[in-house]
Amino acid sequence: MSYISVRGVDHYYEWIQKPSGSQAKPVMVFIHGWAGSGRYWRSTAAALQEQFDCLLYDLRGFGRSRGKPTAVTKASEALIESHSPQEESEAVGELTYELEEYTHDLAALLDAMQIQRAYIHAHSMGASIGTLFLNRYPERVEKAILTCSGVFEYDEKAFESFYKFGGYVVKFRPRWLEKIPFVDRLFIARFLHRPIPAEERRAFLQDFLLADYDAALGTIFTSVSKAAAELMPQEFAQLKVPSLLVSGEYDKIIPADMGRQAAALNDKIEFVVIPNTAHFPMLEDAPTYLQRVREFLQIPAPEVQAS
What we know:
Layout: E1 2-6, E2 9-16, E3 27-31, H1 42-48, E4 53-57, H2 75-82, H3 85-91, H4 99-112, E5 118-123, H5 125-136, E6 141-147, H6 156-171, H7 183-188, H8 198-210, H9 213-223, H10 226-238, E7 243-248, H11 256-263, E8 269-274, H12 281-284, H13 286-297
Parallel strand pairs: 3-4, 3-5, 5-6, 6-7, 7-8
Antiparallel strand pairs: 1-2, 2-4
């Protein structure tokens, strides 16, 4: 496994690329969502490796990126009751779990790998990070694909219930859960409209169980908050990088209407809905998803070999 130090934290990364002789290919960086890891992007990256060198990495505190540069207090547990993003940021030390902080992690990762410009391909919470990155580092991005993202309205009671429930979910994650038959199918059912391969289901459950407690809880408070509800419409409106926003037709986590509203804020955003999919359209209907991505990037579809 490959690791690189980014702002004092060891980050896991991997390349999916196909040798192209002396001709250099552009880099596409993949950003995963909450409690996931870069490995659910592998099949998408493999399908695009003819045109891109694909870089997958695990966000700080998720997947195989485990380290922390400073000591973290136990104050996060109290946030299950207090649900305060500001207190969470103060509790976790020098590097917080604000989404903007993750954009600086990405910039530092690109610097460490001597990548000047890249394509961004991001999903869910990762797409929020990607959107912020486009506005803070526009000179470093060619184009972006933002999957299952959008704008939402603040609802105090709903958010309070979400924080309470999310806190308990993060706290109760015994490793023996993955040993229970069919628990992976039950766990991911809310995220899907169509089935995905069993290895993908198991990997997502494993990533959820491995996620760092403070990172998992901290990003709940920073990505779903009144501040985020006010910030994200402004961020989408300010985008200057050509972007494709992809929604799943039956996504219950980030409904397609949220993506449609975000895209309506800026003519730099092209919006598409993948029919009969939910929160993982790239896994639920890979052919349609890849077709839309290739059309946006203006790259040819792979040739079909005659049998």
